[in-house]
Amino acid sequence: MSLWEYANPKRFMGLSGRVLPVVTILAATSLFVGLIWGFFFTPDDYKQGATVKIIYLHVPAALMAINAWMMMLVASLIWLVRRHHVSALAAKAAGPVGLTFTVIALVTGAIWGQPMWGTWWAWDPRLTSFLILTLFYFGYLAMWQAVENPDTAADLTSVLCLVGSVFALLSRYAVNFWNQGLHQGASLSMDKEEHVADVFYLPLLLCIFGFVLLFLALVLLRTRTEIRARRLSVLMAQERVRNA
User: Fold this and answer.
1) Does the structure show a pLDDT above 70 at 138?
2) Taking burial as the number of CB atoms within 10 A of a residue's CB, which of 79, 82, 103, 131 is the most buried?
3) CA 56, CA 165: separation in Å to the nearest integer?
4) How far is CA 83 from the centre of its chain?
5) Cα–Cα distance between 96 and 31 in angstroms, integer?
6) pLDDT greater than 80 at residue 139
7) 24-55 per-position pLDDT tens digit
8) How far, in Å, are 46, 72, 143 from residue 128 at the CA level?
9) Would you state the pLDDT for residue 130?
10) In the 3-class helix/strand/coil scheme, how is the chain assigned residue by residue?
11) How much is the pLDDT for 39?
């Protein structure tokens, strides 16, 4: 069976209806265990103290904020090339979820940065590109609301998604492009000097896994809602034509 068959709304609704409960349970379990383990059963850092434990929220949220935009990019490209409505609706569904993750990452980053850097905000390359990405999220959602024709809205938001992907990539790799800046290196890295200490590693991985599953569950749920809303609007339009 071809993957493209699930671009059919009926097939997508059938598959997502079976997958969604499983993904939701796994996400809730992973996040519960990962956060409890991380916040209550790992030691304080010898430099950062208990403040380091915000890593279990900040790192997964920031990672998913960037990857959510990249998922929107892939779905938008599929819409532009193949004109599959499910892909456009999936990109639309992912927008608010990705924005929520960016806000969580910005807030937790400020809380973490204040005692470490002595300031809530710095115009660091990664932070600046991440802030611009957040503004693109707002613009993306606003464009969906502002354009009445859904296909035109999908076209315009897909183009916006292509442009915003530059800042998504900069947010991920800014510290590799510029050596200056307050932001630390990657928490999960092949470089032992940058890699998070082993005691924090497993609960952090579990939290990241939970955030990935949470994103998937929310996008599936919202995409199903978007499909139902699109069907309802079509039925209402047909009813108005019959009554005219």
Assistant:
1) yes
2) 79
3) 25
4) 23
5) 20
6) yes
7) 999 999 999 999 999 999 988 777 777 889 99
8) 29, 21, 23
9) 87
10) CCHHHHHCHHHHHHHHHHHHHHHHHHHHHHHHHHHHHHHHCCCCECCCEHHHHHHHHHHHHHHHHHHHHHHHHHHHHHHHHHCCHHHHHHHHHHHHHHHHHHHHHHHHHHHHHHHHHCCCCCCCHHHHHHHHHHHHHHHHHHHHHHCCCHHHHHHHHHHHHHHHHHHHHHHHHHHHHCCCCCCCCCCCCCCCCCCCCHHHHHHHHHHHHHHHHHHHHHHHHHHHHHHHHHHHHHHHHHHHHHHC
11) 93
Between CA 42 and CA 82 the distance in angstroms is 48
Calculate the average pLDDT of the chain: 86
Phi, psi (degrees; rounded to nearest 5) at 140: -60, -50
Token pair listed for 86: 């499910």
Distance separating alpha carbons of residues 220 and 16, to the nearest angstrom: 6
113 pLDDT higher than 50 = yes
pLDDT of residue 191: 44
Residue % of the chain over a pLDDT of 70: 87
Winning range, highest mean pLDDT, from 64-68, 129-133, 173-177: 64-68
Q: Is residue 109 classed exposed, middle or buried when 0-12, 13-18 and 19+ CB atoms within 10 A define those classes?
A: buried
Residue for token pair 């969580």: 104
Q: Which two tokens stand for residue 143?
A: 């464009």
In sequence order, what are the beta bridge partners of 49? 45
